[in-house]
Specification:
Low-confidence stretches: none
Shape: globular
Radius of gyration: 17 Å
CATH class: Alpha Beta
Number of domains: 1
Mean pLDDT: 97
CATH superfamily: Endonuclease/exonuclease/phosphatase
Strand order of the largest sheet: 3-4-2-1-14-13
Distance between the termini: 7 Å
Length: 259
């Protein structure tokens, strides 16, 4: 089973890019998308269906939005946490596929101004409690993946001293992320690549992707049971290092499991 997570930064703007990636570069079984920036009825279902994917979408106009596209069908699907407060913003969708619980999440960016930073920290606490209340972390095969909007450690940013204290690399954000991991989730990329930075996001400005001035903020986190099935994980740069079709500011992360 090959699973990918990709923040597309608008699926309508990125449709040609994603379709070309799926037809010219890679074969996937499950593709999790974040930041769709469209309502469900504007998602390009037919384009994905032509490639053999069924898609479950939890969209929002202009902001947020998540989707899971699968060639293996769905055993069940849940859109949102089932909580009015947390589901005002469409940031979470889950599905069971071939015995694996896929949890696709788009964590808030958490700007310092206003209450967005506090909301981000609360989101992490809620996500942690949701997993503990709904799964057996030691027995269930779980993949929690998506744009987490946090770089874990100094290896995960291009210039730690410059970025320290900025959004995505603040001490309390990083602590919240580590508390999520502490329930037993494994950072799969870091397991396979302990010394490789593995950036997944680069600013559009100043040719940052060509300067390798990025951050690792997109993750595939696995429960112990699913970690045992893991074979490999990589950041796929094909969609990012190009001018046409216009890329997202993120690159997808792809993991392979032997089931």
């Amino acid at each position: 089973m090959k699973i990918a997570t990709f923040n597309v930064n608008s699926i309508r703007a990125r449709k040609e890019l994603v379709i070309r990636w799926l037809t010219e570069k890679i074969e996937l079984d499950v593709l999790c998308l974040q930041e769709l920036k469209c309502e469900d009825n504007n998602f390009p279902f037919e384009d994905f269906e032509k490639l053999g994917f069924m898609c479950e979408v939890y969209g929002q106009k202009a902001y947020n939005g998540v989707a899971i596209c699968s060639k293996l069908g769905f055993e069940n699907v849940q859109k949102g946490f089932g909580d009015d407060y947390w589901d005002r913003e469409k940031r979470f969708i889950r599905a069971k596929i071939k015995g694996v619980d896929i949890l696709n999440v788009y964590v808030p960016h958490g700007d310092i101004e206003g209450d967005r930073h506090a909301y981000k920290l609360e989101f992490y606490r809620h996500l942690k409690e949701y997993i503990l209340n709904n799964f057996d972390i030691n027995a269930d095969k779980i993949a929690l993946l998506g744009d987490m909007n946090v770089a874990r450690d100094e290896i995960d940013v291009w210039e730690p001293e410059l970025l320290r204290g900025t959004v995505g690399f603040m001490d309390d954000e990083r602590k919240s992320f580590e508390e999520l991991l502490s329930i037993g989730l494994v950072d799969l990329y870091r397991k396979f690549h302990p010394k490789k930075h593995g950036f997944t996001w680069w600013d559009y400005r100043n040719a940052a992707v060509w300067r390798d001035e990025g951050m690792r903020i997109d993750y595939i986190l696995t429960s112990p049971a699913l970690t045992l099935n893991s074979k490999n994980i990589e950041v796929d740069m094909w969609t990012r290092r190009r001018r046409k079709p216009t890329p997202s500011d993120h690159a997808p992360v792809v993991a392979e499991f032997v089931m």
